Amino acid sequence: MKRSYLVLMVSALVLVTTILWLLNTEKPMHISDFVQFGIILVLVGFGVFVGISRLKSGTRREPVEDELSIKILRKASSTAYYISIYMWLGFMYISDKIEWESHRLIGAGILGMAVLFFVSWIFYKTIGMKDV
Amino acid sequence: MYNRIKELRARFNLTQDDLANKVSVRRETIVFLEKGKYNPSLKLAHDISVVFNCRIEDVFLFEENTPGDLKS
After folding, report:
1. Does the CB of B11 have a partner CB in chain A at under 8 Å?
2. Is the pLDDT of residue B66 over 60?
3. What is the DSSP letter of A131?
4. What residues of chain A lie within 8 A of the CB of B27, using their CB?
5. Which domain holds residue B51?
6. Where is average pLDDT lowest: A68-82, A86-100, A110-124?
7. Tens digit of each residue's pLDDT (9 = 90 or more) over A14-73
8. What's the number of CA atoms in the CB half-sphere (13 Å) around residue A74?
9. Is residue B70 part of a domain?
10. CB–CB of A128 and B20 under 8 A?
11. Which of A12, A16, A28, B26 has fewest C-beta within 10 Å?
């Protein structure tokens, strides 16, 4: 239960911080900023979905986590980490070619890792964990 | 791997929720097992076979063993 509330709190914190950043930024907004905001919204939605489904499991008196959900979580994490190594390598390669500040590049990398985890989680939720 | 969970659950008149509660997993795990999308741990396979009062190999079968080969 505590972890469910923690997931919801972190999601709310990310959303509030992003909205504050959008409202207080003095630089003109580019299309990439809106894309970034859209991705953050999707990830926050994912966090809220996970938090609510954990709370529902608690109220149904079934375990919040079991061997399948833990295996999916671990497999999705390891897959996202594995792919993200190549993503960072790609970022290192393009960092000389594009004029992004380092903090922006790191932000995009962290967001990319979150997206990779989200996609891997959906993937393993769909195909299951047979022969893994 | 093939399993007879759905068939045995119907025979014992258990819902997916009932079985999930008896073996302490989420209902989703039972859904995945019945669809053949998940190969359970030895402990879960044992717990399920205990609920159905039969041996693990009577519930879970490898591809070469067809359902017709089963003991009733």
Report:
1. no
2. no
3. T
4. 62
5. 2-62
6. A86-100
7. 888 888 888 887 777 777 777 888 888 888 888 888 888 888 888 888 888 889 999 999
8. 9
9. no
10. no
11. A28
pTM > 0.90: yes or no: no
**Which positions in chain B touch A59 (Cβ < 8 Å)?**
none
Q: What angle do CA A103, A106, A111 make, to 5 degrees?
A: 125
For chain A, domain boundaries: 1-64, 66-132
Domain count, chain B: 1
Dihedrals φ, ψ of A67, to 5°?
-60, -35
Q: Residue B71 falls within a domain, yes or no? A: no
Helix (H) or strand (E) holding B2: strand B2-3
What is the enclosing helix (H) or strand (E) of B3?
strand B2-3
Average pLDDT, chain B: 87
* Pairwise CB contact (< 8 Å): A128 & B35: yes
Nearest Cα of chain B lies from the Cα of A86 at a distance, in angstroms, of 29
Question: Nearest residue on chain A to B21, judged by CA atoms?
Answer: A62
B53 at A interface, C-beta within 8 A: no
Q: What is the CATH number of the domain that holds B14?
A: 1.10.260.40
Q: Do B29 and A130 touch (CB under 8 A)?
A: no
Taking only the tens place, the pLDDT of each residue in B5-33 is 999 999 999 999 999 999 999 999 999 99
Q: Is the pLDDT of residue B68 over 70?
A: no
Nearest to B27 among A62, A67, A128 (CB): A62
Count other Cβ atoms within 10 Å, centred on residue A66. Answer: 19
